[in-house]
Structures are given as C-alpha cells and as structure tokens.
Hints:
Layout: H1 5-13, H2 19-22, H3 34-50, H4 52-56, H5 65-70, H6 74-81, E1 88-91, H7 98-103, E2 109-114, H8 117-129, E3 135-139, H9 142-149, E4 155-158, E5 161-162, E6 176-177, H10 180-190, E7 193-198, H11 204-210, E8 214-222, E9 225-234, E10 242-248, E11 253-259, E12 268-269, E13 275-279, H12 281-286, H13 289-295, E14 299-300, E15 308-310, E16 318-328, H14 331-337, E17 344-347, H15 354-361, E18 370-375, E19 381-388
Parallel strand pairs: 1-2, 1-4, 2-3, 4-7, 8-10, 12-14, 17-18
Antiparallel strand pairs: 5-6, 7-9, 8-9, 10-11, 13-15, 13-16, 14-15, 16-19, 18-19
Amino acid sequence: xxxxxxxxxxxxxxxxxxxxxxxxxxxxxxxxxxxxxxxxxxxxxxxxxxxxxxxxxxxxxxxxxxxxxxxxxxxxxxxxxxxxxxxxxxxxxxxxxxxxxxxxxxxxxxxxxxxxxxxxxxxxxxxxxxxxxxxxxxxxxxxxxxxxxxxxxxxxxxxxxxxxxxxxxxxxxxxxxxxxxxxxxxxxxxxxxxxxxxxxxxxxxxxxxxxxxxxxxxxxxxxxxxxxxxxxxxxxxxxxxxxxxxxxxxxxxxxxxxxxxxxxxxxxxxxxxxxxxxxxxxxxxxxxxxxxxxxxxxxxxxxxxxxxxxxxxxxxxxxxxxxxxxxxxxxxxxxxxxxxxxxxxxxxxxxxxxxxxxxxxxxxxxxxxxxxxxxxxxxxxxxxxxxxxx
Length: 390
C-alpha cells in the first residue's frame, strides 16, 4: 500500500517538513496507517544526505528513522568496501543493507542475513529497486544461516549491536549481539578473514583484549566526527597491528597510518612557533599522538596537549592555524586581549571548560578568531590566539 503512486507523491512532496506539524493533519489515505506514512517521510528526509542512492531511487521502502540513523552512511560503506576482495561475503547483521550494497560492487556474491523477517523482506525489495542482483537475503538467526549454508567465505562481516540490558555498562563486545568473542572460533572455521564494525565508543585496548588475530584497525571519521571502528581479523595472524585513520571530507580524504606500539623516536617538545596543528578526530581516537608529531617533524607543545607547532607551513591531517599571539593565561593578559570579544574556543590539557572560560571573560562564540587554551612544555597555562588556514 505504501508504494501507491499518490502516497509516494505525498511522501516526496513533504520531505523536510516537521513531522510534529504533519502529524496534526488528517490522514488523506484512510487505508494506510498515518504513522507509517509519517515514518516514511521522516526516514527519507534522514536519507537525503546520508543515503543519496536510496533517496533518489523510486519505490524505496524505509524502516524506522532510528534504523536510518544507525546504519552506515554511503561514504563509510564505500570505504569498508575498498578493504575487501574475493568471490563470496556474508554479512551476519545485514540491517538496512547499505554496507552490502557497496560490498556487492567488489564481491561477486553477497549474502545478507537479518534476524527481523520484515526488515529482510523490505531490504530484498529495495535491492531490486536499486538493481543489485548479486545480493541474496536470508531471514533469521545468522548463526543458524551460517551453519545451514555450510560454506567457505572470503569474508565474514559483522556489525554487532549492544543488548538493551548492557546500556550504561562499559562498552564491551561480549555485551553485544551477536557475541563475537564467544563465536570467533566458529567464524574462523567458515572464513579466514573477518571484518567487524563497532561504534567509536569502544576503547581500542578493550577491543584488543576481547579479540584475537587483529591485523588492522581502521578508524573512520566523516567530516571530522569518528563514525565507526573497523576491525580486520585474519586467521592465524599474530604480527604487529596496523592503525589506519581516515577522515572523509566533502572533496578529499585525510589519512594517517602507523603501527600500534611501535615508536621510532620520541617526540620533540617546543614552545609555540608560527603555525599550530590540531590532529583530526580519527587520529585523536587512535592515540597516535607521538607518531603524528614525529612523522610530520613537528614540535609538540606538551605531552598531554596533543597540539603541534612549526615555523614552516606543512600539509597536515587536521586543522591548521597561524598563531597571531601567544599569551600567558593571566588576568592582565586576558583583559587586554580577549575579555568582551568574540572567538572560537578550544581547550586542550587545560583545567577550565569552554563554557567556564566564556562566562568568566565574557567571550561570545563565533567570528574568525580561534583561541586554544592549553599548557606548554614548561607546564605554564597559555592561550594561543590564531587565525584558521585549513
């Protein structure tokens, strides 16, 4: 019923409008639940930027808005697809199928497993509308499906979800469905390569304690917000762990890679020079603070500040600023330079919060001035007043 031409035209016409206002209208389609129609409008609105291929296709049926919010974006799905190769991949937690759509561009045959039969049916319908013939959908428990198919796969892909009773606990993989650590040996009996997607909330060291044979951890950010961690496991692998960070931007990507727990030389510390460098969120999540400084031959302001400086401008995976002034954090200096002004404020290794600083010194938000409140190599509290280059 939701694919009725008039209903589809109504959905298209009302994309972007507040659902709270639409909900007050009388349902123009008495044969269809009004909530179902409203859900299609809300979910498709969410898909406009996140899932442009779905948004632009005809006769797509959407699940709940929450499912759209939780699914991979097309950009992050495309990145994951760049990792895999081979003939056969099985996705044990298929969901809305965005990852599988992109896996199917690299893999000859993709199997989509989804425990919710309604969602599985919906996804199968959507793949037909998107003209993706090499994905087969299986409804039911993916462990049962994996046992029933009894095949070897080039890749197993898993996106475990946290159980409801695990809310508020420290994020651990054993608290998710499926329980990957518990089933890992069984997975390796079916494939030599496993890819696990987790939320950025998972601590890298905690994940490594629960998993084995980890070869690479990909930290994927979109517009400088870390969206997912991608764990690449290979059967029997016991070597060094590679960390790959990527920040997907509108017109380019920022990448920085290093080997976990491998440091060629210690970072050089120094006072602020002409330029200031702030690593992107993927690097910050990776913990490669010393590695990024030494790789780019930059001086680090302080062991715990994670800000870097140089006299010569370089291309850097993160934000870059020109330092206009470096002042001590004191009443006299603050009154002279920043009180009652407008500035963008960032704190790094500093005792006060951004809100506290704004309130104390009456600094409004915005403008072209960027202020970093931090600590230098001499443990002195300083403020760097900058203009943004990148």
